[in-house]
Amino acid sequence: MVKIEFLGPISQEPLKIEASSLEDVAKTLQDIEEISNWLDKCAVAVNDEMTNDLSTKLKDGDRVSILPPVCGG
Fold it and tell me: Which residue has the higher pLDDT, 50 or 9?
């Protein structure tokens, strides 16, 4: 199982799913309307390392963070 956490204004509790790659995670999240609207705007980190490669392999216990864009002043 991998843990998916949603940061910032994405109001979604963390999920635990079976996934062997980020592509599996993306497919699962596309089916959740509250999350799918954010996906094309967000960055992704696996165990605190940024990545944009959907072929990134995942193993049991990995943490995937979905990071929406932020602004500051």
Answer: 50
pLDDT digits (tens, 9 = 90+) for 14-36: 999 999 999 999 999 999 988 99
Give the span between the Cα atoms of 58 and 56, in whole angstroms: 7
Q: Which residues contact 3 (CB under 8 A, 6 or more apart)?
A: 14, 15, 16, 61, 62, 63, 64
CATH of domain 2-67: 3.10.20.30
Residue-range domain boundaries for the chain: 2-67
Confidence (pTM): 0.90
